[in-house]
Each structure stands twice: as structure tokens, then as C-alpha cells.
Amino acid sequence: MFRQFGKVFVFSRPAFKNLLRHPWILGGFGSVALLGMVTASAIVSHTDSVPEPVRTVTVLEQLVLPAVVPVDSGVGEFVREERIQRSDTLSSLLSRLGVKDPKALAFISYAPEAGVIARQLRPGKTVTAKTGADGRLASLHFPINGKDSMLVVERKGDKFTASERETPLSTRIHVNSGEIVSSLFGATDEAGIPDVIATQLAEIFGSDIDFYRDLRKGDKFSVVFETLTHNGQYFRSGRILAAEFINSHKIYQAYWFQTEDGKEGYYSGEGKNLRKTFLKSPLEFSRVTSGFSNARLHPVLQVMRGHRGVDYGAPVGTLVRAVADGVVEFSGWQGGYGNLIVLRHQGSYSTAYGHMNGFAPEIRKGARVNQGDTIGFVGQTGLASGPHLHYEFRVNGEQIDPMAIALPDPVPLDDAQLARFKAAIPPLLSYLDLARQAWMLASIE
User: Fold this and answer.
1) HEC secondary structure over 326-359
2) What ranges do the domains of the chain cover?
3) CATH number belonging to domain 77-166
4) What pLDDT score does 6 carry?
5) Which residues have a Cβ under 8 Å from the Cβ of 438 and sit 6 or more positions away?
6) How far apart are CA 254 and CA 225, in angstroms?
7) How confident is the model at residue 166 (pLDDT cuts 50, 70, 90)?
8) CATH number for the domain formed by residue range(s) 287-400
9) First CA to last CA across the chain, in angstroms?
10) Average pLDDT of the chain?
11) Which of 25, 30, 96, 384 is deepest in the core (most CB within 10 A)?
12) C-alpha to C-alpha distance for 143 and 137, rounded to whole angstroms
């Protein structure tokens, strides 16, 4: 059980464990010092001889302490990182970053070259600030939306400069799940999923699910998505790689796939293209305030007349998106429509967007747009009793109820691409399974 070397006993780990089971053995050897992870312990044996008294000597030595150098508040620097919160303003964000610098606040608030910061205070974004001990800003690093770069604000004497710099990023894969209680964004917030991923989720399934009218309490979703990090800190969200949405007990799945010619898209587990030719709605989240009708009381003119489109109620400034690829046929003012955009699509199809507050900068006659592009903003121009978008779907120039028409399907994958897709999705399916399991465990807890 143990080996004796002179007057010291050295125990192996198993032998020491056996001793602990028999305290009477320990009593025969005196005291044992138990050190958490020590694999051997030493015990001094008892002797009959009286030990000689230990002589003690007091030694006094003059120690020379290093010179104390006072910290110059203009030299000492502190680095802080903060994630932007929903209620943040520039002032509150800088305060949490330890910045006490009115000149810096004024520069970031009003200088055109730093204006991107005020426009992009998106929740979840990590901002880094370097300050002096007195709170004066030395530098601030702010991630720019949609780019792999940062806006860097730096102090140069009593002045500030702002410049955009490329940022080396690393990619991580996240899996997450949630359950609808009241809304999609409420559920993704609860699950800690960034808003940009929630928006992608709505876009991916937007042709099959109306995220305002079709959602039900108890609907579930799982999502696999990328996040881009810089020095281990969250920089921005990437794309969704796989997703599953259970709406009214019907299961929808989507997998990201890139074809050999470089075209990206989302496909069902069977390889069906989820990018429908036309989106269900020109707004991401809204409500139908007036449907397609041959006769209704006009809210402004107070006369019975046909309503040859669908009205979506939304606040002024809400983004309006193109429901399909197309070319701008008209953009400008047109009578009761107010500010109007007409897009011409493939074949005999066209769409119209009325009462808009304004147009996106690149919108002009002849400009090409892609499905999902922002073309303008909800307004109340023309004969409108409140802020909303008037949307029309036209076939050969005639308005048709978009809720009733059967729309053409997208071009499917050919046999070779379908084989590549089938070979690519098993890892993504495994991630989705992991997300489901995480949700089940969270539900049990």
C-alpha cells in the first residue's frame, strides 16, 4: 500500500484513497496534509528523541523601494467594450463606454464623416472606445452595417478624424430555436437571435408564410446562422445556412445552396427553390387595411368605387420592397396615387406602389431592381386618409387580386445541381437537429 524511504512515506494515488477509507490507519501515522489535486503526500514518522530547540535570529535589512511615478491622466488609457442596447442614444452609449468628452460627442453627432454612427445604432453591435483616465476619447471603433469594416474615430490633438478601415473577421456557426408567443421579433428577442437574422427568416419563408396574418401562438422555429467576429467579439451577423419553421403544424425547411455558376438561394429539403417569382407582400411586416374589391366607400371621396389593389397600413417611412425582379417603368407623381412606382416584370406582369413618401435614391425610369430591394417608403401622398401603401398586381395592364392569382413557379435545379444539393445538406440537417434538441431541453427546464 505504501513504500518507505528512510523516514518518509510516499503513497501512490490509489493507496492514498484506500487510507481515506480507514481513518484509524491515518491515526497511526500522525497528521496528513490533504492538498486538492496532489498525487502524493509525505508523512514524517514519530521518534522517541527530544528535538533540539530551534534558534531564531532576527535580521533587519533596509529595503530600497522603487520610485513612485504619478500617473499622468493624459497618458494612462482605458479600453472598454459595450454592446448597443435598444434604448441607446449616442450620449448614453458614450457614457457607458466611459467617454466624458463634449468635443467627441459633438464630432460624432454632427460631423458628416462620422454620421454613420448615429444612423446605425443597431442593438447587439459591439463598440470599442479607448479613453484617458479623465474620460477624454482617444479612439472609437464602430462596426459598419453590411461591410467588413469599421469606422474609426481618433483624436489628433484637439481635433478628431474619422476613417473607414477593413477588419479581419472570423466566422462562427450558431444554432438557436424559439417559439412564437406574440410576434416573430418578440420570439427572436427572447431567444437572443439578432434582428437581422429574424428579418432573413421572414424573407426566406415570406412566400409561404404571411408573418403578420399567418403566425399562431405555439409556432416554432429553428435556425442555423453565421456570425462574424473580430478579436473574439461579435462584429455582425452573416447569413442563415438552414432554417425550419413550424406554422400551424405545417413544417417548412430551407437550406442555403450555391450553384456552380455562383447563384445563391434557399431550397427545401427536396431541392425546391424557395425564392418564389413574387413575394406575398411588398412590406416585411404590416397589416391589410383594405382588400381588393369591385366596390367600396372611398375614405376620402366618400363615394362607392372599385378598389383595384390591396392597402397595407404601416408608419410613414416603412421600407417598401420590390416583390420581384424587374425594371422601373414609372416613378413620380400620378394623381390620386400620389408618389407612384410601377415595375415591369417578366412576361405580362407588372406591379404598382402608391401613396409613397419618397423613392429610394437609385429609383428612376429604366433602372433594374431585384426582388426584395428597397424601392421607396410608405407615405400618405395623393388621395390617402392615413399612412399606408397601395399595392396593385397587374396582368397585361389590368389590376388583378394578388391574393387570388396563381403565380408562376421559379426555375428548379437541374439533375446535376440537385445531386450536389443533396450531398451538401446532411451537415446542415445535423445542425437543425441540434437546434431542436436545445429547444426541447430549454422547454423541459
Assistant:
1) EEEEEEEECHHHCEEEEEECCCCEEEEEEEEEEE
2) 2-44, 77-166, 287-400
3) 3.10.450.350
4) 35
5) 175, 176, 177
6) 12
7) confident
8) 2.70.70.10
9) 47
10) 77
11) 384
12) 17
Secondary structure of the chain as H, E, C letters: CEEEECCEEEECHHHHHHHHHCHHHHHCCCCCCCCCCCCCCEEECCCCCCCCCCCCCCCCCCCCCCCCCCCCCCCCEEEEEEECCCCCCHHHHHHHCCCCCHHHHHHHHHCHHHHHHHHCCCCCCEEEEEEECCCCEEEEEEECCCCCEEEEEEEECCEEEEEEEECCCEEEEEEEEEECCCCHHHHHHHHCCCHHHHHHHHHHHCCCCCCCCCCCCCCEEEEEEEEEEECCEEEEEEEEEEEEEEECCEEEEEEEEECCCCCEEEECCCCCECCCCCCCCCCCCCEEEECCEEEEECCCCCCEEEECCEEEECCCCCEEECCCCEEEEEEEECHHHCEEEEEECCCCEEEEEEEEEEECCCCCCCCEECCCCEEEEEECCCCCCCCEEEEEEEECCEEECCCCCCCCCCCCCCHHHHHHHHHHHHHHHHHHHHHHHHHHHHHHC
Q: What nine digits make up the cell of 160?
A: 478628431
pLDDT mean over 58-67 = 59
pLDDT of 69 strictly over 50: no
Evaluate the CA torsion angle 97, 100, 103, 105 in order and state its sign. positive
Instruction: Assess contact for 135 and 76: CB atoms under 8 A.
Output: no
The owner of cell 434582428 is 195
Comparing 259-268, 281-290, 305-314, 355-364, which segment has the lowest mean pLDDT?
281-290
- Render pLDDT for 177-210 as a digit per residue (tens, 0 to 9): 999 998 888 888 888 888 888 888 988 887 788 7
pLDDT of residue 409: 73
Bridge partners (DSSP) listed for residue 372 = none
Query: Above 90 in pLDDT, residue 160?
Result: yes
- Alpha-carbon span 254 to 252, nearest angstrom: 7
Residue in the structure block whose three cell numbers are 462596426: 143
Q: What is the pTM of this model?
A: 0.55
What residues contact 65, with CB distance under 8 A and at least 6 apart? Answer: none
Cβ burial, residue 45 (10 Å; 0-12/13-18/19+): exposed
